[in-house]
């Protein structure tokens, strides 16, 4: 039997206050802080169970709470620190798009308005090489911003019309944070399980939190960046951007432009982008719909938060530690060969040629349903996915459109359809049908998009975002490509994010699930991949 520090596992159990979390820890777990013991052998498992149950049965709540406090102190002792040592503002010159005009207002479209109260997109990239010269990072950011000027603007409420617009002026800036960390870069860059607390310290926040409610009041900044140098080597680039300004494609467009400007210096030119939301004239009442969505999402403007959202935030703040312990994020890498194998299995029935997105989404959907062992075979399950509408509009938008152009789609199937022998084929068919239907009438029902989202929110088992076309591992600031990149703002059960993988044809899939489900999902998904 291996030498195990039982106190560590007991303290984790105590702090979780839930037996299912303890059972998950006994599977694939993180051992003493900063180390990974891997799988616990069966004899160890039984002894730890007995040890834990006997001890908690023999102590009162005072000792129980003391264990929680002790575990918190241990975590604080070993937690990697990130120290901010400089905050600067990267200013831009007036863009040719608005010349010397003192102010340019870009009202949000109805595609943007849906995201107005959501937390910012927080994207992290970890690079193993030496940190680029900070002057180069700053100057290249400044060089990139004139043609990406709306990202340096401020979200502003216009009470006369009820619109929210991005206010752009010559003195706009992006906050640039410089920091140092004594954390273990290699562990952060290689562990499949996300160290969420450490990741959060490596990405910036956008707004100044209210002492109690963390409310965001307009006007508000659109974007901030953070560069963190690790004492052990390597560096991190963190970007936070308001989701009402860009979607995933727009974010990667910015990161690629900044990295290219840093890598190639004076040789590079930032490609022109389209900021103006008036190019979306595909619905005759688009402006009216945008205002209606804003009223539904944020009825207390310029406070950019609904009353329901305020109460939710209060609740989350009171239970933040418990909430984090209940959700786990894990990254999976799917090779080209695995994808081809899944496609062959899916295409065996009906002679249909399913896309990479369709087969991977289907496999994820099926694996999660099997993980949750839903007893009612007739229960309806929902896979939600975010569809990029740029090329599906008539006329289509150009690829260089910087704003949001996304739509939620929901594929539905009964449990018995997914867990049967033909489950993969049926799941693929349901997703393909939803893609085809949504593509034929992209703006159909857009007046009720918010209502549809609310009706389906609690029923969606899986929500897939991102794209394997995002070349996340080709970003290069002049010192090589990242060893890891993750979306830090993964906060919901069943959330899945896709980007292109490290190798040609690979896909990186990051999954957020409850701690009680992640281990079984990992087994089920791996088993389905290897069938």
Rg, nearest Å: 24 Å
Q: What gap, in angstroms, lies between the N and C termini?
A: 33 Å
Number of helices: 18
Shape: globular
Average per-residue pLDDT, rounded, comes to 82
For the record, the count of structural domains works out to 3
Contiguous low-pLDDT stretches (5 residues minimum) are 1-42, 74-78, 208-215, 313-322
Query: What is the number of strand segments?
Result: 18
Fraction in helix = 25-40%
Largest beta-sheet details = 6 strands, mixed
Instruction: Give me the secondary-structure category.
Output: alpha+beta
CATH topology heading of the largest domain: Chloramphenicol Acetyltransferase
CATH class of the largest domain: Alpha Beta
- Secondary-structure arrangement, i.e. CATH architecture of the largest domain: 2-Layer Sandwich
The strand line-up of the biggest sheet is 3-8-10-11-5-16
GO molecular function, one term: acyltransferase activity, transferring groups other than amino-acyl groups
Keywords: Acyltransferase, Membrane, Transferase, Transmembrane, Transmembrane helix
InterPro entries: CAT-like_dom_sf, Plant_metabolite_acyltrans
Protein name: Anthocyanin 5-aromatic acyltransferase-like
